């Protein structure tokens, strides 16, 4: 227990999507390990995944559990998890529809009277619930400080606010510590987005000032200029608490992260054991993304011709090309059965794979969890962003941290058929830049190793993230003590 007095009780309320649930559940476990009572708010269909992720912590004595809210869309047949929906339009419906969770969430808050709520960035309406009850709301950002700083500039706060010029010319982001440029096609453009979704992003931005502060899955030494910019220039209170994946000290905890059964785990680790150190390329585009059949074939062709052993995690091509049919003729026999590569269809034990000595690089879509897990494992990355904050994270990895080689993707899009196909030759060349023995590749590997050490130090007792968690617990405890005296 960090502080004397009444025990803090914090609600942690993630968006029901793997990339949001995983880090918030880790955060809840971290706070529970430091004496806080942590309640993770979720729906019945998502509860088993959360419960299997926290059961080892709970058994070891940490006060972490789940509380259920109702899912208001059952009658309409809407799935309870973002990743169970394939259609981009229905995914947007899922995001803009979350205010319907409010009555049920509000009842839980009123019944339990938590000391504070930590809620997903996609739930701006929770700030109103917190204000009504008179408790602090912290927003949980499953992204980098760097991307928060860029978003502050690029996402307009009103529908009428002009964004930068609509052109393919590159433009430089003004007023940030590094020279970072994009083309318009690489950034989210509210003018081209569904108005209700653009409106949600604006709400997320304009409610920021009403939050008690932000909890960010990052660490100070990774992006000090952007932690400072966020705090001093944008003027928001924020705590860096990551990389939260490192709270899972036992491989069994890493394996169960996300609460999915990974049938391939033992086979996968044995396969890795048979490979040379740093020889394997790990390819995974997060928990959500599918590609067109054309693109999948280009990736397959490239992986076959690079000669590097690989693990390729794929969600396949979706409804228009079901499992396996997109692989080039004979690929399984030539590449997989010969031991040159492994394909995981579905869910991989990512953190275990990234930390295996045989893995030398990660081809990633730059989702923030994957980016940070790679950093915590000391691996350089090959960046292939698709949408969301991924193009921002790419710039952080490639231009600022210099631990990544870019694939040169030019189009931000939520639709796989709108993304320009990257050709096999380009992929092969990029893999060579990442995995090869050039001085540039060696330098990237060296910097990645240094960041791994810094990430681990940040999470140890006395480290920057460990200390920030302690400061936040103390601050909330002091606030609670004052509140209970008045
Ligand atoms: N993940 C995993 N196995 C998979 C795919 C993803 O464990 O097969 C985890 C990954 O470790 C990360 C999260 O799912 O913690 C994905 O988050 P990220 O921000 O990288 O991408 P998103 O899926 O949200 O786009």
From TrEMBL:
<keyword id="KW-0328">Glycosyltransferase</keyword>
<dbReference type="Pfam" id="PF00201">
    <property type="entry name" value="UDPGT"/>
</dbReference>
<dbReference type="GO" id="GO:0035251">
    <property type="term" value="F:UDP-glucosyltransferase activity"/>
</dbReference>
<keyword id="KW-0808">Transferase</keyword>
<comment type="similarity">
    <text>Belongs to the UDP-glycosyltransferase family.</text>
</comment>
<dbReference type="InterPro" id="IPR035595">
    <property type="entry name" value="UDP_glycos_trans_CS"/>
</dbReference>
<dbReference type="InterPro" id="IPR002213">
    <property type="entry name" value="UDP_glucos_trans"/>
</dbReference>
<protein>
    <recommendedName>
        <fullName>Glycosyltransferase</fullName>
        <ecNumber>2.4.1.-</ecNumber>
    </recommendedName>
</protein>
């Amino acid at each position: 227990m960090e502080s004397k007095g009444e025990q803090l009780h914090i609600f942690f309320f993630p968006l029901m999507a793997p990339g949001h649930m995983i880090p918030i559940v880790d955060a809840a476990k971290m706070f529970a390990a430091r004496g806080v009572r942590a309640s993770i708010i979720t729906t019945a269909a998502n509860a088993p995944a959360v419960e299997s992720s926290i059961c080892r912590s709970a058994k070891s004595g940490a006060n972490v559990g789940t509380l259920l809210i109702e899912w208001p869309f059952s009658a309409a047949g809407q799935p309870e998890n973002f990743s169970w929906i394939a259609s981009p339009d229905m995914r947007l419906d899922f995001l803009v529809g979350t205010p319907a969770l409010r009555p049920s969430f509000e009842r839980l808050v009123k019944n339990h009277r938590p000391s504070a709520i930590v809620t997903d960035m996609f739930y701006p309406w929770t700030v109103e619930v917190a204000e009504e009850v008179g408790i602090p709301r912290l927003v949980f950002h499953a992204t980098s400080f760097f991307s928060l700083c860029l978003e502050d500039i690029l996402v307009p706060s009103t529908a009428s606010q002009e964004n930068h010029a609509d052109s393919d010319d590159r433009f430089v982001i003004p007023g940030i510590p590094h020279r970072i440029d994009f083309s318009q096609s690489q950034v989210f453009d509210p003018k081209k987005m569904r108005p209700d979704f653009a409106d949600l992003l604006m709400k997320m931005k304009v409610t920021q000032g009403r939050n008690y502060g932000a909890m960010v899955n990052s660490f100070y030494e990774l992006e000090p200029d952007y932690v400072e910019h966020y705090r001093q220039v944008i003027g928001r209170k924020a705590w860096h608490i990551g990389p939260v994946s490192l709270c899972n000290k036992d491989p069994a905890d890493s394996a169960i992260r996300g609460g999915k059964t990974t049938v391939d785990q033992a086979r996968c680790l044995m396969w890795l054991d048979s490979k040379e150190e740093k020889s394997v390329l790990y390819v995974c585009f997060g928990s959500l993304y599918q590609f067109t059949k054309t693109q999948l074939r280009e990736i397959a062709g490239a992986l076959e011709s690079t000669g590097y052993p690989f693990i390729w995690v794929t969600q396949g091509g979706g409804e228009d090309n079901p499992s396996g049919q997109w692989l080039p003729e004979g690929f399984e026999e030539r590449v997989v059965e010969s031991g040159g590569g492994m394909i995981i269809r579905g869910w991989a034990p990512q953190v275990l794979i990234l930390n295996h000595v045989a893995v030398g690089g990660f081809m990633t879509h730059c989702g923030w969890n994957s980016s940070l897990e790679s950093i915590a494992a000391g691996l350089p990355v090959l960046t292939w962003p698709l949408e969301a904050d991924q193009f921002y994270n790419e710039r952080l990895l490639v231009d600022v941290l210099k631990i990544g080689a870019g694939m040169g993707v030019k189009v931000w899009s939520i639709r796989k058929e709108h993304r320009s196909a990257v050709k096999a030759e380009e992929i092969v060349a990029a893999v060579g830049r990442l995995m090869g023995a050039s001085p540039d590749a060696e330098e990237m590997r060296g910097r990645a190793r240094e960041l791994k050490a810094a990430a681990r130090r940040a999470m140890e007792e006395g480290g920057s993230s460990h200390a920030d968690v302690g400061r936040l617990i103390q601050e909330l405890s002091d606030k609670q003590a004052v509140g209970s005296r008045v």
